[in-house]
Structures are given as C-alpha cells and as structure tokens.
Amino acid sequence: MAQSERTRPLIAQLAAVPEVGTEYRPFSISPDGTTIAFEWRRDGDWQIFTVDAHGRTAPRRLVAIDDPCGCPKYSADGRYLYFARDDCGSECFDFYRYELASGELENLLPDTPEFSPNPDFQLSPDGSRIALCANHGQSYSAAVMPAVPCPGGVGVEFVADNCFNDWTPQWSPDGARIAWHTDTHGQDSAVLVADASGGGVRPVGGEDPVLAWSPRWSPDGRRIAFTGVVDERYAIGVYDVVADRVAWAWSGDRDAHDPVWSPDGRALAFLADHDAETALWHLDLHTQKRRDLSIGRGNHYHPRFTPDGSAIVVALSAPGVPGDLFRVELTDSRSTRLTNGLPDELAGHDFVTGEHIRYRSLDRLAEVPALLFRPRKHNGAGVVIIHGGPTWHHANEWDPLRDAFLDAGCMVVHPNYRGSDGYGRRWQLANRFLLGQGEAQDCAGAHALLVEMGCDPDRIAVTGRSHGGYLTMHMLTQFPDFWVAGVAGVPFFDHIDAQLDPAVRDDLRWWDRENVGDLVKDRARLEYYSPINHLDRVTAPLLILAASRDPRCPTRQVGQVVDTLRAAGKVCEAHIYADEGHEISGVENHISYDRRTVEFILERLDPRGASV
Predict the structure, then answer these.
(1) Count of CB atoms within 10 A of residue 187's CB?
(2) CB–CB of 152/112 below 8 Å?
(3) Between the chain's N and C termini, which has fewer beta carbons within 10 Å?
(4) Nearest CA to 249 among 219, 213, 283?
C-alpha cells in the first residue's frame, strides 16, 4: 500500500472505491455471451468498462469521456455498443454509438442542449431504431428515433402523449410494438402497449388497467412480465398479449419486482425485498419451482440471463461489497465475482452488517422499520442517516458514510420512514400529502432509539441527501434539541418554491402536485412544513452541500438559508459543487462530499474523532 493511501482518512479511501452502477440499466451482456459492458465509477466519473463474462480477465475501460456515462447496450449483431452520456449531471442525456472493431464514436443526439431523454433507451431487434422516453411538453413521453445521428433531435417521433411520465420502453421481439409504463396519478402506474409506428395504444388490463411497472416481453412476444400489486404487496404478473389476460406468477408477503425472462421463455428471474435486503429469485414457470439464488446478504440489482440461459448476471451491493457484478450458474448456484472494486488496503477492514429492527415513532403512531449498525467499540455517539427518494429505502449495502462513522465509534441507524418502499404499498404511500409530518416523526424517533441503545442524548447528529436533506432540515427545525450537528446534502427547503422554481423540471413539479399538495388549496400546510420558514428554531451547526447543475433540488435558496442563520449567530457552512448534478458523481467531488460530511459531524460529536 502506498504511503498516500495509508495516510488518507478512511472516509476518503471508502468514497474512492469503484462501484458498479445500480440505477436504470447498469450493464449489458454481449450477444455471444462472452463479454459484459457495465458502468463503473472509477478514474473520474461513471464510465463504460468491459469484462469477460466468466471473470477471467480484469475490467477494461472502453472510452475516455469526462461526463458521467451509463446504460450500455450491445446491438444484436454485436458490432456496436451504445450508451448514454450525461451533461455535467444536468440529466440532459445524449446517446452514443461505439463501433467495437474500429473504436469510432458517434453522438446520435448532437445539438440537443434542452432535450432530456431518460438514459435507459432500447435498441430495436434489427438495430435500426431506438425506443426512448424524453421530455415532451410538460411530461416525458415514449418515442422512437433512428439509430443514427439526429442533430437537434430531428427524427425523434413520439408515439404517445400521456399525462404524465413514460418509462422503460421495451421492444417486442419482432420490433412491431413497444411496451412501457406510465405514471397515472400519485405513485400509480400502468403498462401500455403500442404499435412502434404510433397508434393502437392499449393498457395491460383493458378498460380497468392493473397497477403495473417495468414490462418485459417474453422471447416469443406473446407475454409480458411486469411488476404489479396483489393485496398491497408488489408481485410478479404475466400478461397474455393475445388473450388479454393477466395471471400472477409470484405474490406473497415480500415485495417482488424487476422480472426478466430466460431465453427459452420457461423461467423468470426477479428480485424480492425482505426487510432492508433484496434477494435474487428464479421461478420455473412450468414446474412452479422457486429457488433463492442470492449470492449473500445485501441488495441484488438488475438480474439478466446469459444468452445461452445457463447463468444469471446480477449486481450486488453489501457491507464490504461496493457494488460489483456476479455470475450465478443455474446448475449448481455457484457464483463468480466478475468485478472487485474493493482495494487491497481495505480488504482487511472489519465491515459491519446491519440489524433489521423496528422502533416506535416519536408520535407513537407507527412501528418504523430500520437498520441498526453497532460499532465494534462504541464511543457513546450516534448518527441518524436519512435516505432520499422518498420512495426508496436504506438497505444493508455498501455505504462509505456509515462505515466511516462506525469506524470512529458511532452507532448508526437508517430509518425507513413512512413513504419508504420495500415494505408494501400501504407503507410506501403513508406520507402522501403528509410530507414533513409522519415521516419526520419516524426520523425523530431514531434519536430515542439511539439513546435506548446506549448513546449520549447530547452526542447524536443527523444527515441525509435529497429528500433526506429536506428531512434533515426538518430535524433541525422541528426537533432542535435532539441534534448536536446536521449535514443536509442536495436538499430542498421550501415546498412552495419547489413548484415555482423554473430550474425544476415540469415532471418533478407534477410529482409534487400529486404527492405533496396543491399550491393554492394546500398552501398553508405546504408553508408550515417547509423548513425555510422555521430557521429561527435551528440551534445545531449546519453544513449544506449542493450542486450547481442539479435539476431536482436547485441551489437558489441555499444562500438565503446561510445568510439567515449566520445573521442570527448560528453556525452554518455551505459548499456548492460546480458542474455537478444531483448525484455529485465525479470521484473527487464524491470524495469531497463524503469527507466534508463525516468530518463536520465528527468534530461536533467528538473533537478527537475529526481526523478519523
């Protein structure tokens, strides 16, 4: 290990560890099954790498691009690799085509600074067209474009105009139709099927559409697997396209999602949540035999069968596993690690696995699911880390912030508050039109939990990103006596401004109207539950971290918050990362974000731990 590695703080080492992506489509298997292209955050930002599909060679970087890149996709003939490139985190993606033999690289969407397609486009079976969902008026709509350069977006033809957003377009095997899911209202969604040339749109379920997400065509094009809802739990449905009939392949007491077909159409692979972990399952549709193929504890992501159907490739994130690709053989469930982002200097680190617990919310109205992490040697301090989304949940997976706090002796709890997914539909919708209310009571209840577990009540801090940053501000304004410090990452402060700020995309404002409230009818409630209106209650030192290109939580009000708190004699620091978006994905900025967060909190929890 180099001297510089030994002297770097642990959080800087952890934050620099390469991670395979877990959002959208993080990898693609070549048609011949020999190679996997994947997105990896290493050497600067998210970039496209390739690796041998059996793990016999080290990963190789494909191209050198400054901006974040992801969602690789091989053409059916194996000649090209396509991927999406983000513009400095602004979420205005371009699609690129890379010829594998020559190394020639082409931008298929040049001169489109305002065009903002989702990155998980799909190639038609013959490779001539691309299906995508992109901004169209106020929402994102399904579209088709030629798989050739389209300057200014010329050639993009929308096949639908829904209210509101369309997602995850999928070609039928014959290239004649496209299936996708579309937001209907609130957090409901329906799967639609349409002719690729436009027209003939029909929902799965007919006149009474079923709740449905993430459609996947069977290899023969006669069925569509999807994520649906049975008895308030997410389940795996199969839609017979010809008979116009829905059957449920898997339902139970766990949320199941992300189904994919085996190449012969006889089986499905999917994911199932259990508390704060996600398992990999295989279901034989003929025998109904189910197998848990999980590699280990943690979160599995994005399963895909190899072209010959002999194995499943999946991403896994877990304590000590920083988001890596694995191959699972179906014959004997043997797994092979295809990437290994953990460097030698951290291979011997004692990573802690979380405990699934439930505790009582502060308002005593809910039993809150959570993950509790106990340090090997507790110093009496505690940290509450609040997830974003809000439709998301903290899982027992890789987390540099948490591991740095644990190493410093702090106990850590991740509350999966009202509004988190993974615990059934009812819990996920429990904060709709109630943001800042029950969910804040759930997060505040984590303070009492940590005290019960042995933490000093005066040595507990709080942090979170995005919606977690918003809830961090709620902790400091609603419950100021609980916290010794807070770090709000890429936060928003004001429900009113979130719907009025022109820097916020229209589709994000729609989500707010559908899940937060109406600016006129609900104005009094929105104002009351906006932390910016209660800054006079803040007593704990606050650090705000934000990004200049963030289209979700713009920085417009950061200066106002800082000025207000400083004018009142409060400690408030802020740092805005230039040319970064909501994720703050560049490696150096990512390290800086995590290091600032940890050091700011440890200085307040225990001055002796500030350099850990």
Answers:
(1) 17
(2) yes
(3) N
(4) 283
The tokens for 513 are 């109207």
- The set of residues, in sequence order, having a beta carbon less than 8 Å from that of 127 and lying 6+ positions away, is 75, 76, 77, 80, 147
**Residue-range domain boundaries for the chain:** 346-607
- How far apart are the C-alpha atoms of 145 and 440, rounded to whole Å? 44
Residues of the chain with pLDDT under 70: 1-6, 607-612
| Class of domain 346-607 as given by CATH | alpha beta
pLDDT at 608: 53
CB-based contacts of 193, cutoff 8 Å, min separation 6 = 177, 178, 179, 201, 202, 203, 204, 215, 224, 241
Q: What Cα–Cα distance (Å) separates residue 487 from each residue in 12, 27, 185, 595?
A: 17, 33, 33, 12
The three-class DSSP label of residue 561 is helix
For 91-107, b/e burial (b = at least 16 CB within 10 A) is: bbbbbbbbebeeeeeee
Q: Is the dihedral of CA 211, 422, 267, 127 positive or negative?
A: positive
Strands 94-99 and 80-85: antiparallel
What is the token pair recorded at 320? 């000590």
- In this prediction, residue 6 carries a pLDDT of 53
Q: What is the DSSP letter of 320?
A: T
Closest by Cα among 418, 521, 533 to 474? 533
Residue 2 burial (CB < 10 Å; 0-12/13-18/19+)?
A: exposed
CA distance 143 to 314: 28
Give pLDDT, residue 610: 45
Distance of CA 215 to the CA centre of its chain: 19
pTM of full prediction above 0.70: yes
pLDDT of residue 301: 98
| Burial readout 390-429 (b: 16 or more C-beta within 10 A, e: otherwise) | bbbbbbbbbbbbbbbbbbbbbbbbbbbbbbbbbbbbebbb
Q: How many residues can be counted in the chain?
A: 612
